[in-house]
């Protein structure tokens, strides 16, 4: 680990599995939000005129940060912190950088620690009484394509003779996404209309997408940006990241197939993307660092700007992800959502640090709040595929209601979950990223 | 013309060629900024601590809008106008919509009209004493590919056997661009570094781009946005546009060739894009409306959502554009910039209204300040090509200094100009969009 990685990858007292909180629900084995996690989000009390507030998830509660500040619990960390906490989005907080975030993390642990005694319930808002909003004002959204398994599987469909292009193992391939249409988990997903053309159709036609899909991704949110024309070195890259979230890059495959050449996906993706409400900080992920993807010996070594010992040894982050589907009929019949896939973020060919270093290698500036999507998280196994396009290549999915699916139908709800676990540490989770398909706008 | 186009395409008293201003330089035949134009921008007095201010170009002067407001000259137009004029970017003003903009235009003409008498010189700031800044906070930047000539020429280079893809004449092809790195005219352009691979090289390598190019484009800036999942109909599209500017979508061709498959251009473009400081309003362009590009009879008719009588009859805007190049050696020798190409925006296969309608057809929301680039403006003639990649296909350009160019060298300055002229109307101009190449960051 290089010196510059501190304090991001340091496992310290805040990760101690013996820590318990006076918020009892945070001590439950199955919570995503023990005291060791402390992800940030933005919320508003339901049915209230209260302003939007920054909070931290703890068990089934939200720690209200402006209230912590008002009670003097956050004093002496950084001069800008009180103002940052008053904002309706995380951006000013994210811009404070890893040193302040590490101090804030320490203070929040002390505030919530059971050793403090009973704690102050006035600091909490029950999560089920809150509306969780889009946590970040996202400037630019970049979507990578970092799973070699996904790239190969999709390439096989779009270009059977040429699935994995020659640049893939040298270049962390990415495209610019649409930031205006990024919504918070729980927002309904309007089925997009668009142009498509079946291979055997004489002409294209316009109408509701018939091949609507999800893409299971991890999003990395930029904390401190870089000035234009000042690239970020690989071993400095994570200093510029605030944290990770779950990301659904909804995709209309029929629109995509017709429009994507030669400039890449556009309307097939820009109708909406969903992110989870809680951002898990890079600091919280320290115990779950892991070696980067181990490339087969025949693969090229990354060029020097994408290569470092630190990245190889601990550039990976072992986030386990799961995708579930629930159809309207399943919900009517009281059936549980069906698990479609499970995978780990470790299966990605490129690390988040490599994404940042590549993105800025041409001098491109990142700004606080920019979102870097990983691309679909697919693994080598058949039950580790991150979108329906891959899963249903061999045939439709059977739902417990007796229905089948190749692509999403109106009423389908897609649920992503993510978590990290490792022997000796408390499991921490990302919560959920959800969206339900609603019918296309009538023409 | 459909009723919904009003007041955008209405030629009224504000376009009368007999109008003269008490700002004498605005009455000169060769000014870009007569009283009939009135483009908006954002400026700061050089060497002053004064805040950033919104202004309107008039001759060689800038009309200081906050000062106009302070003197009560803008009263009674719209309640939000005084606040919008106090902003450091045009966005709040752009969001007020075409009806307010038409009223403001009328008021500005009366304020500057020579019939008003000598006028008040305190309302003016000489343009040469002002720094012109990025006028708009750009949320998302979308870049189209609307010149069939450019698409064919470039396609011939990247895909000799398949230059124009089958979707081109059905779909207004576009990709998402990078908004963080959009800069104001005059900002130096740092040569990007990146990965490239010559066709005969065994491996890719990383270094300063050797094939740095400009792309001459027109940018359309969104005024009033649309909510997510509410597409904008073709004949309503221009109601959502505030105005046009010049746009240089600088491109590193060697990086582009290696990275662009399968997801389109990324680092080849994201290092920087330049826009002109003055935004010419849609209202000012009314006299220069023209039929859209006339498609050859063998071309497909656009699908209904991209087709209307109004668009065919007057969807075009006859902006004449010119690209000039000045090398460091030329400037040392006192030589004038060399004109590389001249063209008209009428040569675009898709209109700006079609771009807006297509962009939102899937429900994607546009926000105030979003930028829609036209793509490189190339025409059918050899002297109407909008980038060096096309111009130097047959061989290098000869400069009057005795130098030659295939791509841009350090010290080269690229200058775009644009204007509209039509018998019976005053010529109006876009000013310039400039940038000079400076050496790559040393590794």
What would you say this structure looks like, in words?
The structure is a homodimer of 443-residue chains. By secondary structure, chain A is of the alpha+beta class. The first copy, chain A, has helices spanning 65-70, 81-85, 91-94, 98-112, 148-158, 253-259, 267-270, 309-314, 328-332, 352-360, 388-391, and strands at 40-45, 53-58, 61-64, 124-126, 130-133, 141-144, 174-176, 182-184, 189-190, 193-196, 205-208, 212-213, 216-222, 241-248, 251-252, 273-275, 280-281, 289-290, 316-317, 320-326, 338-344, 371-373, 397-398, 404-405, 413-420, 428-438. In chain A, the strands form seven sheets. In chain A, strands 6, 7, 8, 13, 14, 16, 17 and 22 form an eight-stranded mixed sheet that branches. Chain A is globular. The model of chain A is unreliable at 1-5 (pLDDT under 50).
What characteristics describe this protein?
homodimer, 443 residues, alpha+beta, 5-stranded antiparallel β-sheet, globular, disordered N terminus
Short description:
2 copies of one chain form a homodimer. Chain A is of the alpha+beta class and 443 residues long.
Coarse structural class of chain A: alpha+beta
- Number of helices in the DSSP assignment of chain A: 11
Proportion of strand residues of chain A = 25-35%
N- to C-terminal separation of chain A? 57 Å
Give the overall average pLDDT of chain A: 95
Enumerate the spans of chain A where pLDDT stays under 50 for 5 or more consecutive residues. Answer: 1-5
Q: The biggest beta sheet of chain A, please?
A: 8 strands, mixed
Helix content of chain A: 10-25%
Q: Which chains make the largest contact? A: A-B, 67 and 67 residues
Counting DSSP E segments of at least 2 residues, the number of strands of chain A comes to: 26
- Envelope shape of chain A: globular
Question: Taking Cα atoms only, what radius of gyration of chain A do you get, to the nearest Å?
Answer: 22 Å
| Quaternary structure state of the chains depicted | homodimer
